[in-house]
Specification:
single chain; mainly alpha; Helix Hairpins; 0% strand
């Protein structure tokens, strides 16, 4: 599989998660949807680290390094998206339409 295909798959997966969040945001407070999204990501990422460990002690040893990694990646991604929205605010939201992301 080429890098382009992998990137396409990555963005399609992300778009699918966002579509679920957008749907839920129509009937639930968007802040609650965001909190649930973050909770799910943290829970899944913890599972990934645990599944890759051979023992409870190895899992415990990876905890801080893994947490630092996920936090740094989130920070990079959110900074990128904030910059993108800041530079293209009118294209994304205009003055009044805040119905999509």
């Amino acid at each position: 599989m080429s890098n382009t295909e992998k990137d396409k798959e990555f963005y399609e997966m992300a778009d699918a998660f966002i579509a679920v969040a957008n749907k839920q945001g129509k009937t639930t407070d968007p802040g609650k949807v965001s909190a649930a999204f973050l909770y799910a990501a943290a829970r899944f990422n913890t599972f990934i680290v645990a599944a890759g460990a051979d023992s409870a002690s190895e899992f415990a040893a990876r905890k801080e390094e893994s947490s630092d990694y996920f936090m740094a990646e989130y920070k990079k991604m959110i900074d990128e998206h904030f910059a993108d929205y800041e530079n293209n605010f009118e294209n994304y939201l205009g003055d009044t339409d805040k119905s999509h992301n």
